[in-house]
Each structure stands twice: as structure tokens, then as C-alpha cells.
Amino acid sequence: MKVFVVGANGQIGKHLVDLLNDSQEHRVRAMIRKEEQRKHFEKNGIESVVVSLTGSVEEIANAAKGCDAIVFTAGSGGSTGADQTLLIDLDGAVKTIEAAENLGIDRFIMVSAFQANNRDNWNEAIKPYYVAKHYADRALLQSDLLYTIIRPGGLVNEPGTGKVTAAEGVDRGSISREDVARTILAALAEENTYRRSFDLVAGDTAISAALRKI
């Protein structure tokens, strides 16, 4: 399938775009928000499109035309205020869901936050971020899309191991961004992840096997 990656210039996004580009099964289109980010993708022969999540649903939909799946892995970043978290992590995600619905793109993978579904476990220091993720996830759950919601634990930049723990509720832990990207790739066509949501941390089970056990 051809996969539209929203947030392609982020750390998880870059890993995922490279994995998709190297795969035999999929093609990729990278959505980025600045023209100067295009060089990174063009040098590797990767199709890219410049669109802002603060723009319209129509703009996002036009950028995703011809794709078969959408992965939302964008984020406003830790240095922005609650206003940008609201505009990107919540409204940007919901607009992307609406764009998918308008285009008839059924497959949608959301990268959320660990235990975003459980208010009792939210990190008070970044509560607006958790609120945004929670309600973006709820919008996806209430859609007719063939969704998967992945809620990774603490993100680290260590090399991935290819082994994870994936379930509705797991002990808090960390996971490499590379392994999050590998999990997204494996989930795209794994029917056991369709209309499912789960937490994801480093573990002892190969990614493909972990997804089949959810």
C-alpha cells in the first residue's frame, strides 16, 4: 500500500519513512511542514509534500490523494505551549482523520501517548499534551476508519531491538523510536491490530508475534 506519513520529519517519522522506502510491500509519501525539510527526503528519492496541520482539511486531503493508508505521528514538540499542542496534536489529528474519511482512505494508524486513554495515569507535567492525545484518539475511535492506536512509553533514541511488549495495559517503560516505527510498519497489514489500541514498551517478544497476541 501507499502510506501517507504525517509528521515525517519527526524522529519516529524519519525512521518510518526510511523503513517504508526500503520495504518491498509499501510505498511512501512524506508530509512535512517546511520547504527546507524536503531536501532530506529528496536525496533518498522519497516523495514529499509540504502542508501545515494548521491548514484546512481540504489541504491535507489533497496532499494524501492516491494513498491507501495514513500514519499520524506528528507532534507540536516539547518546547511549544499548550496552544500549539491543541492546534497540532488535537485539531491537526482530527483534521487528518476527517481528510481520510473524505478521501475514503480506510487504514489509519495513530501514534498516541502511553496510557493516554486513562486519565488516572496522565503525566501532570505535560497534561495538555495528554488531553490532546486522549481526545484525538477518541475522535478516531468514533470514526468508521480501520484504525490502530499505538501508545508508546518513554521514547529513547537507542537502537531498536525488534522486541516489544504490546497490550492494553502494561507496566510503564521506555521504547526506542526505531522500534515504534518498526511496530507501525508491522501493524499496517496485521489484521489483529485493526480497530485496536494498545500501549507499547520495550520487551522480549518479536514485534510481529507481539502484535498477533494483542
In short:
This protein is α/β, with parallel strands linked by helices and 214 residues long.
Task: Write the topology of this structure.
Blueprint: E1 2-6, H1 11-22, E2 27-32, H2 38-42, E3 47-50, H3 57-64, E4 69-72, H4 82-103, E5 107-111, H5 127-141, E6 146-152, E7 154-156, E8 163-167, E9 174-176, H6 177-187, E10 196-202, E11 205-206, H7 207-212
Parallel strand pairs: 1-2, 1-4, 2-3, 4-5, 5-6, 6-10, 7-9
Antiparallel strand pairs: 8-10, 8-11
Q: Could you list some keywords that capture this structure?
A:
24% strand, nine-stranded mixed beta sheet, alpha/beta, globular, 214 residues, 37% helix
Shape: globular
Radius of gyration: 16 Å
Main structural class:
alpha/beta
Q: Characterize the biggest β-sheet.
A: 9 strands, mixed
Strand content: 15-25%
Count of β-strands:
11
Average residue-wise pLDDT:
95
Query: Helical proportion?
Result: 25-40%
Order of helices and strands: EHEHEHEHEHEEEEHEEH
Uncertain runs with pLDDT below 50, 5 residues or more?
A: none
Helix count, DSSP H or I runs of 4 or more residues: 7
Distance between the termini: 23 Å
Task: Record the strand order, biggest sheet.
Answer: 3-2-1-4-5-6-10-8-11
Provide a descriptive summary of the structure in words:
The chain has 214 residues and is an alpha/beta fold. It is 37% helix and 24% strand. The protein has seven helices and eleven strands. It has helices at residues 11-22, 38-42, 57-64, 82-103, 127-141, 177-187, 207-212; strands spanning 2-6, 27-32, 47-50, 69-72, 107-111, 146-152, 154-156, 163-167, 174-176, 196-202, 205-206. The strands form two sheets. A nine-stranded mixed sheet has the order 3-2-1-4-5-6-10-8-11, sandwiched between helices. Helix 1 links the parallel strand 1 (2-6) and strand 2. The two termini are 23 Å apart.
